[in-house]
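Why run this: before we spend reagent on co-expression, it is cheaper to look at a predicted model of the complex and decide which construct boundaries make sense. The entries below are exactly what would go into the expression plan.
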Amino acid sequence: MKLSVAQVEHIAELAKLSLTNDEKARFQEQLSAILEYAERLQALDTSAIPPTATVLPLRNVMRADEPRDSLSREDVLANAPQSEADSFRVQAVMD
Amino acid sequence: MTLYDLTIHEAIDLMQRGELTSVELTQAVLDRIVAVENQVQAYLTLAPELALEQAREADTRRAHRSQSNLDGHAPLLGVPLAIKDILCVEGLSCTCGSRILEEFVPPYSATVVEKLRTAGCVILGKTNTDEFAMGSSTENSAFFTTHNPWDLTRVPGGSSGGSAAAVASGMALGALGTDTGGSIRQPASLCGVVGLKPSYGRVSRYGLVAFASSLDQIGPFARDVRDVAILLGVIAGHDPRDSTSMPLPVPDYAGAITSNGLNGIRVGVPREYFIPGMQPEVSEAVHTAVDVMHRLGAQVSEVSLPHTDYGLPVYYLLAPAEASANLARYDGVRYGLRVEATEGMWGTYRQTRGAGLGSEVKRRIMLGTYALSAGYYDAYYIKAQQVRTLIKSDFDTAFREVDVIACPVAPTTAFKIGEKADDPLQMYLSDVFTLNCNLAGICGISLPCGFDGNNLPIGLQLLGPAFGEEIVLRVAHAYEQATEWHIRRPQIPADSETDPINEDDQ
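The model came back. Tokens follow.
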């Protein structure tokens, strides 16, 4: 199955990735080849097989809901591209 | 005696006897870095002053404590190690091999790094990696490609290629890497060192920058099996900060490798791991290694892992799916690159990610996003998870009959830089023997078992059941002690730009 350029653009939009035209053309070819390779999975009948999301027997690991020390505001904001008034600075989410 | 070539346990013995200080050892390794790093390029960040300060601290600590008191509390006192640049070390840059994190300095250390420091180690710096650990050669690092110390025109493997090359070339006594689909074992094989991928849940992932959370695991590199056992003993164990770390006691791994015989050990050889197209020398070396294990008393039999072939497509759907979710965090808000767009918030997200992430990372985000998107989720993502169940049950069945599985690590020895860079599917095929171990959550080690006609190392892979690290280490150690592959060191040609005095180090 070959992906169309429109499909590549749709996936890029879902992933919030700006792609150049050259990247779109390359990904169209490469993703199609990889997906075609993945088609071999369809040969297996898995209708009775449960999916494995994790190999561990652990489920819903909880801890006590108690306050603990955390990183200082200053340390956390030190890596922010933009910060203001002890907060991360973002662009307007709504007009 | 060349100090930078010492194993960790040799160095510890010398320091305990008062014949070597950590400052001398650390300085010798730093000198070695000056001599060969230009050619190998294993490190993204070097911290020589910090390393020497930690070495002085270690020497002071040793001088003020009795030996018996020291052993249990600081098993790595004064040992210089390297850390893959995808693990957080407080105050040292953590790029993950990506432009998007070029300026990121973590405000805390990973649990494994805290444990190593508590054990007394010296941190030399951060090693090169394929961007976000996605790759098999370090060619996907946004900064530079690491060179294989055995042949500088070849890749060291990846993604933990910097760590493997640093250990192979004497620029660290040991190192940490991460393994999501082979990223410790494959570079260990290509660089002729020992690398262990622990069972999923054996080692805390707190402070590891996430790639594929159901597959990622941190593990050690070193020059022999005993060193790897020592390092694993330090980093393993439950961590309340990682809910996927198993609350199980940590065995005495170094103590598990005392016996050199293999009497009573059952070794399985999977027929699916010897395929047309693999380098004949690799297959011969692995078969010869199995013969050695047989001579040491092991009972050898053929086993079958019938779903082996499906591992590659399963991995390349599941790992990208998990990556596409994990890497959604790089949006230019809290850390990392931000490219401000005029068309507002969404534009900034697109531009930031478009500019900051490299081709392979984008390719996998695209692939994973597609596999998780409406209309394809069942056909790709769920289907792959179902086949993952079959792959895991292949191993469950095999481990009822055998204690360890012996097989190749990679189909070929180190390939040329650039050889596979333009063909992602060919590159993915170099992981074909390592991926299934991660999908099944079991443990595996890579150790040297020969050299090909170009004097390039060949690796033997020993796989064990989940939390079966002791048996894997024991078998690996017995094989290693019966052979001499692990004693060989690469001859790195002197850089024309470095001082001729350094030729003495070769």
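Chain A touches chain B through 48 residues (CB under 8 Å). Residues 5-43 of chain A form a domain with the Histone, subunit A fold (CATH 1.10.20). Bring this page to Monday's planning discussion.
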